[in-house]
Amino acid sequence: MEQPRHLVGKACAHVAAAALALALTVAPARATVDTRLVAGGLSSPVYATAPLADGRLFVVEKGGTIRLVQGAASSSFLSLSVATSGEQGLLGLAFDPGYANPASPGFRRFFVDYIDPANGDTVVASYLRSAANPNIADPASRVEILRVDQPAGLTNHKAGWIGFRPGDTSNLYIAVGDGGGSNDPLNSGQTRTTMLGKMLRVDINNDAFPADPNRNYAIPSTNPFVGAADGTLPEIYNLGLRNPWRNSFDMANGNLWIADVGQGAREEIDFIAAASTGGQNFGWRIREGDIATPGIGDPPVPGLTGPILVYDHTIGQSITGGYVVRDPSSDLYGRYVFADFVTGRIWHVAADGTPKTMADAVEITALLDAGGGGVLGQISSFGQGPSGELYIVDFGGGKVVQLVPEAPRVAMMALGLLVMGWQVRRRAARR
Ligand SMILES: [Ca+2]
Ligand SMILES: [Ca+2]
Fold first, then answer.
1. Mean pLDDT, each 10-residue run in order, the chain (431 residues)
2. What distance in Å separates the CA atoms of residue 17 and residue 399, rounded to the nearest whole number?
3. Domains along the chain?
């Protein structure tokens, strides 16, 4: 029987609209994601990044090595002597935005954050990769940027994340923990004359301390506390942080996501929109997440900025901040992915920066077990590649996996298209 073509077209349009509506409804709640093993056999990895679109992944090992992974090959890019007890170690890595640009002052330059084995200080230093060999760093190129005195005998809460906001080639953000111990014994988070318990921001292309060979940065004139009458250090961008271990900028818009590890009750995510001028006080130790810190009793302080998401310790005990996924091939595009180090659970939530609850978060822990990455254990960090691809770092498992679409997805899509085609024909036949 001959079918009027316009009816077939109309049926097609209906089915297409229904399919689109279905896709919008199920994504990302039924996102088809899994993992692909990128690197294994690593020693206590705490960070990974792929600065260039050249297939090279740089993995930070807590013991002091930056490992370069290319396919099945792995080699040492740089090895440093660092303190390693407790939460100390080589903790952070950031490639200069001008790393691949010969005209940039940051050409071949990268930055590390580690704990000095001689005295327990936090050190941020820069190195250059070898001019002759892009696969090794030049240890002799070391320049110390900044040093933060750490309290003696405390080996936790050293934060360690460092990073650049997309589009800003000169200001390095440095996450510093409260220095360790229970209840922030030095009240570092709220003390404006210490760099402990803060997010710092310094200009790494200028030196405002020419007489000091170990202090090589300038204060950005737009930092929120420049010239503050109360003596707040001008390096400070945010205060009131406990251990902002892993943070990220949204590569699409420059929003800053801070995941501050809690003490005994709450884990939290803090959000700073790209348009903000900084200066937020995120409340520690007065506040732990969304509650007054149990056992502290500090008086309330006005003007604190609360987290945009918290979870309590029945859900997890140590948050690992992630990234807003910007991999166009991922069902999680535009979602902020984060995890809990202790429970191994992993979630994503809309990245619009408005307050959320865990009821808004979608857990994907069980999905990430079948695609070659293996079951993830202790998620110590995430990482991001130049095309927005998301890496997940497994500390205990010694591996890095990439978030990828689930393998059967293509087959499921093909089946869906077959069913749609059959429905179109059936509807058309009825007319
Ligand atoms: Ca200097
Ligand atoms: Ca807080």
1. 40 49 45 89 98 96 98 96 98 98 98 98 98 98 98 97 98 98 98 98 98 97 98 98 98 98 98 98 98 94 97 98 96 97 96 98 86 81 97 96 78 61 64 53
2. 42
3. 1-29+408-431 (no CATH), 33-407 (2.120.10.30)
- The label of the residue with tokens 């001689």 reads 118
Q: How far is the CA of 283 from the centre of ligand 2 (A)?
A: 5
Distance 85 CA to ligand 2 centre (A): 26
Ligand 1 centroid to Cα of residue 386, in Å, is 32
Ligand nearest to the CA of 270: 2
How many angstroms is it from 308 CA to the middle of ligand 2? 10
The CA distance from 197 to 307, in Å, is: 16
The partner residues of 199 in beta bridges, in order of sequence, read: 175, 238
Q: How far is the CA of 44 from the centre of ligand 2 (A)?
A: 28
Which residue in 148, 149, 147, 153 sits closest to 181, CA to CA? 153
Query: Residue 75: which residues within 8 A CB-CB, separation 6 or more?
Result: 67, 68, 135, 136
- Do 332 and 349 meet the contact criterion of CB atoms below 8 Å apart? no
User: Please, are residues 125 and 142 in contact by the beta-carbon 8 Å criterion?
Assistant: yes
Measured in Å, residue 176 CA sits from the centre of ligand 2 at 14
Question: Phi first, then psi: what are they for 159, rounded to 5°?
Answer: 40, -125
Q: What local confidence, expressed as pLDDT, does residue 431 receive?
A: 53
Cα distance between residue 39 and residue 66, in whole Å = 13
Tell me the DSSP string of 75-99: EEEEE-----STT-SEEEEEE-TTT
Instruction: Please state, in angstroms and rounded to a whole number, the distance separating the CA atoms of residues 399 and 381.
Output: 11
CA–centroid distance, residue 146 to ligand 1 (Å): 9
